[in-house]
Amino acid sequence: MSHPTGIYLNAIANRRTIYNLDPTLPQNVSIQDIQAVVQSIIKNTPTALNSQENRAIILTGKTHKKVWDAVINSIPGENGKKRPTSARDEAFGCVVFFTEQNTVKKFQADYPAAADAFPVAASHTTGAAQINSWTALETMGLGCHLQHYNDAVRAALGELVPASWTVNSQLCFGNPVMQAGEKTFIDNPVNIYN
Ligand SMILES: Cc1cc2nc3c(=O)[nH]c(=O)nc-3n(C[C@H](O)[C@H](O)[C@H](O)COP(=O)(O)O)c2cc1C
Description:
It contains 7 helices and 5 strands. It is of the alpha+beta class. The protein binds flavin mononucleotide (FMN). Flavin mononucleotide (FMN) binds next to strand 4. Belongs to the nitroreductase family. Its cofactor is FMN. It is found in: Cytoplasm; Nucleus.
């Protein structure tokens, strides 16, 4: 495998879910570095007809704690609170991914024959931005896990972001305390048909 491709494939293979985090950053990484990486990914991840509906913000410090407190308080009973409590207390921050819905609506109006395709494409491209970010953050030595407390996060953010931004996920990050466990794979060949 040629050199840059090997590096890229290793980064993809090394991206894992790591729940055990410490709320710090690796020594040589700043929150501005993370911002620059996510900014570049939001800019360069492709969208249908270059519609550019992907958005992201980074929560850390008091705002991260406040949003995750609201998520915890939105969950009845104790069992479901474990993961958001760890996100609040053990993650240094999180990237929240959004879709800007006015953009999606505009493309639906401009291309009525493909109207049904735009929300699907928006869902694909936010997924691409999320996994690109997850992979990139792990190459920086961060540990990450992906969460979907979307309604509670949207409610907690209030007017911090425009009303047209719908929440897709939260990528929680911090210093990894433990490496990811072993992962099993199905036999899933990519065949060539000639
Ligand atoms: C689209 C998608 C949604 C996921 N949603 C969640 C989630 O809501 N909560 C969670 O803890 N992990 C979530 N995960 C993490 C997966 O469970 C995890 O990626 C999978 O088990 C493979 O493990 P790995 O990330 O270590 O490779 C999600 C992953 C993907 C790709």
